[in-house]
Amino acid sequence: MTRPAPPRKPPTMADVALATGVSPMTVSRAFKRDASVSDATREAILQAAEGLGYVFDATASTLRSQKTNFVAVTIPSINNANFADTVGGLSDGLKERGLQILLGYTNYDIVEEERLIEQLLRRRPEAIVVTGGKHTDRARRLLTNAGIPVIETWDLPSAPIGHVVGFSNALAVRGMVDHFVAVGYRRIAFIGGDAHRDTRGTDRRLGFIAAMQAHGLDATRLIAAGVPPISMREGADAMAHLLERLPDTEAVICVSDLSAFGALTECQRRGVLVPGQMAIGGFGNYEIGAICVPSLTTINPDPRGIGANTAALILDVIDSKRTDPAVIMLPPDLILRQSSR
Amino acid sequence: MTRPAPPRKPPTMADVALATGVSPMTVSRAFKRDASVSDATREAILQAAEGLGYVFDATASTLRSQKTNFVAVTIPSINNANFADTVGGLSDGLKERGLQILLGYTNYDIVEEERLIEQLLRRRPEAIVVTGGKHTDRARRLLTNAGIPVIETWDLPSAPIGHVVGFSNALAVRGMVDHFVAVGYRRIAFIGGDAHRDTRGTDRRLGFIAAMQAHGLDATRLIAAGVPPISMREGADAMAHLLERLPDTEAVICVSDLSAFGALTECQRRGVLVPGQMAIGGFGNYEIGAICVPSLTTINPDPRGIGANTAALILDVIDSKRTDPAVIMLPPDLILRQSSR
DNA sequence: ACAGGCAATGTTAACGATAACATAAACGAC
DNA sequence: GTCGTTTATGTTATCGTTAACATTGCCTGT
């Protein structure tokens, strides 16, 4: 009379304890770092655990200890080298402490961001990192009341919720405008998206306009190239548009290196010399800008540095080494390359 | 006599229940979709919850119901448009069911992958998706014993652990070699990384060698360009190397579009005409290949499709609509563009 | 008018770990 | 040799939610 194989529930610490002849508490200690368990006992426990196929249950641990070891992170898009670098820096900085990243993306939409933040907070992260400083009212409330460290990145919010690790997108673009003007360009255009979804892109356009006006120059050569975030294709289309409508333009600043590269290729297709007939500037210091011919003048916002600083900040706050809201600014570098010589 | 503000523990369902005058169980039901609660009661509960600043505790829910609503995913690198697209397709397909992605990256290292898999399994995901079919023995064991659906992607493992959603990297490259030969190229080189870290890259190189030999052609023009995954810079370096050492080479197939683009720029810097003097093929159908001048012949492995199919498969398995291990092949497309005309 | 059914809600115990406290044994200082 | 201290381990109760079962009341059909 053979029974059907029982559904065989996965083993728990109690099973490991039974197999080793100790109490569950000792098993629990054996899986911690600093706990006081004799080497022999720990060895026996871990071996029994491996033999039984026991896998630590982080959920139960979390519920009792009220520590999830999660850090929640929202980024606009997972498919973006800049944000990926920030997550990389963050992840590396948190790894040694056993903090795991719970990642979500908002698709550049603050309503989606609100939904995402709520979902993430349900997992009770130890801290939450959001990209950007613009949120729905409810999202702000959720973050404020979450009772955990909140870090806004990639931006310089006028009214920060908690901590900030970022920079001013507008000021960064101003630096590039200043450079272009100093080199002698006057009829300068800006290529960006056509909506306010991408707030960092919008800030860059506003920074462009303000900087041009500060120089007493015409700030109306604005090409809106499609729904943000715009990429290579839209950059190329925008350059086509620009060359047809405003052919006397001498230089163009693009909202990103990707659109700048697209714009560059359109010049190549049309035989427009870069930088001879058209100078180009980008934003973001993507790899492509360093490799393409001609290489692209750009702004390096140090995405990995943002992530690394955010990680360090989180650890300091968790260790109570820091109690007041921090505002960490990482001034972006202007990188001069062939496209604006 | 003012007391110091109490640490004010975050409200629980019991608090919401008290505030609404119902039992905690009814509050629990109000937060579910299908549960039987009257509209009036649910409304009152949700309003009270919002007023108290209550946030659902997914950890406790998970522990009791044994459902985490997590799907674990490992990718080699977060900073890669192909894998990002796969995660995007996966995420979109799982979102409607409330399944959240728990993402980790292995840095192209199967030892790191093992560590990561163990970490992820501790969170008790409903399913686990791994990139690639090569794992450490212990990782294989962990996956096999996890008791959840396992899906290997982006590959065609010889001995699958569970389900597979992928394609043969070797066969895909063979298709490109066949094309190059048909068009008349004979002295064809391959540019890739110099180690076995990136198993998909290695498979592509092996596919190249096999295909060349099948045509009776010299398969020794192999340029190793650095630690995988190689990118634009390494592609440029490799092309420089190739042009100096094997100047009679007529065409080159690169392990990725990124290295192919780097190789292309090196040709541009040296005045080597593409495709006139050197034809180039890439892999991955990255955006850059469609935009650059000349545009790049490439292979489209349909990363988003891999993600979407994986999501659909996971839902089918969870719903028990499918019980046997699935092997879903998405044959990559060869995309012919200017760089190999 | 009453059985049967369904909708809305309540009660109890449990998910699997560990914080907090308790205890036993070993060790050293004087 | 006694006492305090440290080390290794055990016991009990609990984290916040929900599965499973129980109950109440209202509606429907005959």
Notes on the structure:
The structure is a homodimer of 341-residue chains. With 341 residues, chain A is an alpha/beta fold. Chain A has helices at 13-20, 24-30, 39-52, 58-65, 81-95, 110-122, 137-145, 169-183, 199-214, 232-245, 257-270, 287-291, 303-318; strands at 70-75, 100-105, 127-131, 150-153, 163-166, 188-192, 222-224, 251-254, 279-281, 298-300, 327-329, 333-335. In chain A, the strands form 3 sheets. In chain A, strands 2-1-3-4-5-11 form a 6-stranded parallel beta sheet, with helices on both faces. The longest helix of chain A is centred in the middle third of the chain and has 16 residues, at 199-214. Chain A is elongated. The structure holds a DNA duplex (30 and 30 nucleotides).
Mean pLDDT of chain A: 95
**Largest interface, C-beta within 8 A:** A-B, 52 and 52 residues
Unreliable residue stretches of chain A: 1-6
What structural category characterises the helix and strand content of chain A? alpha/beta
What's the helix-strand series of chain A?
HHHHEHEHEHEEHEHEHEHEHEHEE
Oligomer: homodimer
Radius of gyration of chain A: 26 Å
Number of strands of chain A: 12
Name the shape of chain A in a single word: elongated
The termini of chain A sit apart by 87 Å
Beta-strand content bin of chain A: 5-15%
The order of strands across the largest sheet of chain A is 2-1-3-4-5-11
Provide the helix percentage of chain A.
Answer: 40-55%
Question: How does the major sheet of chain A shape up?
Answer: 6 strands, parallel
User: How many distinct helices of chain A?
Assistant: 13
